[in-house]
Amino acid sequence: MKTIFPALALFATTIIAAAVPDEQGWYLRRTNEIHLEGLPIVDLEVTDERFEGMTFRSSAESVYNEMKALKPELFANKTEAVLNTASLEKRQSSFNCDWGGRWVTGSDCFEGVDYLIRLGTSWCGVNAAPACARVSCSHGCGIFLCNKLDHHLQVHCKDIATDVHDISWECVNSIGEINGARDFASHFIGIADQNC
Length: 196
Fold this sequence. Notes:
Layout: H1 4-15, E1 17-22, E2 25-30, E3 35-36, E4 39-42, E5 45-47, E6 56-57, H2 60-70, E7 94-96, E8 104-105, H3 110-119, E9 123-126, E10 131-138, E11 141-147, E12 153-156, H4 157-170, E13 177-178, E14 180-183, E15 187-193
Parallel strand pairs: 4-10
Antiparallel strand pairs: 1-2, 3-4, 5-6, 5-9, 7-14, 8-13, 9-12, 10-11, 11-15, 14-15
Helix pairs in contact: 2-3, 3-4
């Protein structure tokens, strides 16, 4: 009997969820997704001038695939996505290598970064403010765009990929695991271990 109650309590804490309001209604979020930095998790919004009047709401991977299905000619000549950090001007920011909790193997983030690069100058945004949008989640690596302002925020999707690259250089441990955030005045980009 003594072992049943602790086991039951552990099980209950892993399945607890909360109903979170959304423009399209209510939906469930697991407790480990309720907030980061005290900010609620909301859907990523992506806009692109080539898709006039459309807003895509999902992960970078899903948005890229949806855009490609709608206008395959825009993505026909894409081979392998390449991140060019040499030509980027330095932006005012700082790094917080304690953000996000558990460490993630750096290579686990490659898939999400690849889709962000492929989205290029599309705008990745957070409609709610202040809040965090989970941009990508693959192989346990969650990439977040977090808005610190009290209004909508947008950044180029490829800039998020650059920030993840920079976090991986600044916030890496001795066995190649990464964890942390790149903090700007208006927003931050974070990497955290997630259940994907």
